[in-house]
Amino acid sequence: MLDPLSDVSTAGAAGPRTSGRRRLVVSDVDSTFITDEVIELIADHAGTRAEVTEVTERAMRGEIDFAASLRERVATLAGVPVGALDEVRSRVRLTPGARELVAEVQRRGWEFGLVSGGFAEILGPIADSLGIRLWRANRLEVAGGVLTGRTVGPVVDRAYKEVTLREWAARTGLELRDTVAVGDGANDLDMIRAAGIGIAFAAKPVVRAQAPFSVDGPRIDAVLDVIDSVDTTVG
């Protein structure tokens, strides 16, 4: 069984690094690495999308605590058949440049990870399909073939995202200064601040205001230009 709190895929060995320092690039998922908010796609099956979207927006702006907002939103999903997740997976769209970003990071011999306030049931297959070994997400509780409206295990909130960044850096033998964090919402701010290079991507104003670097989009592989610019500047 997939473990959302572990390195779950053995695929995707990186090619040789061609130049520059070795790095770990960690990206948020919903509205960053993918264009969707997965919980809203699931909420379509519960008839609660409008309610969930409103709470999601408030959480991304930093107006309410993420863990509390997650509990509130997931509660509305109670009773959704677990089979609906297959349809949700089919609707998820990668952000333009996401596939190219992963391929180039791997070509350089760097590490790439995805950390999500979304759900392992959706993220796991995406990560495996792209050869991404490092990923972490929440897990939905299921009983009797339907969602219970709860999650199981630790909540991947802003603090846990920073913990993940630090853990993966240590695991891959890198200093924190060699890490890159990319995200769009308030839930990403702790890891963006902690990383050697913190990048707001197509982000909410509160994140753009606090992140050292910003990329407006639409292609997420443009973050490589930021990384290369920093590496050129520091020598």
From TrEMBL:
NCBIfam families: HAD-SF-IB, serB. Pathway: Amino-acid biosynthesis; L-serine biosynthesis; L-serine from 3-phospho-D-glycerate: step 3/3. GO terms for cellular component: cytoplasm. One of its GO terms (molecular function) is L-phosphoserine phosphatase activity. Keywords: Amino-acid biosynthesis, Hydrolase, Magnesium, Metal-binding, Serine biosynthesis. The lineage of its organism: Bacteria, Bacillati, Actinomycetota, Actinomycetes, Micrococcales. It catalyses: O-phospho-D-serine + H2O = D-serine + phosphate; O-phospho-L-serine + H2O = L-serine + phosphate. Pfam families: HAD (PF12710). It is an enzyme of class 3 (hydrolase). Its cofactor is Mg(2+). The keyword Magnesium applies. Its EC number is 3.1.3.3. InterPro entries: HAD-like_SerB, HAD-like_sf, HAD_sf, PSP. It comes from the Bacteria. Belongs to the HAD-like hydrolase superfamily. SerB family. This is phosphoserine phosphatase. GO terms for biological process: L-serine biosynthetic process. The active site is at residues 28, 30.
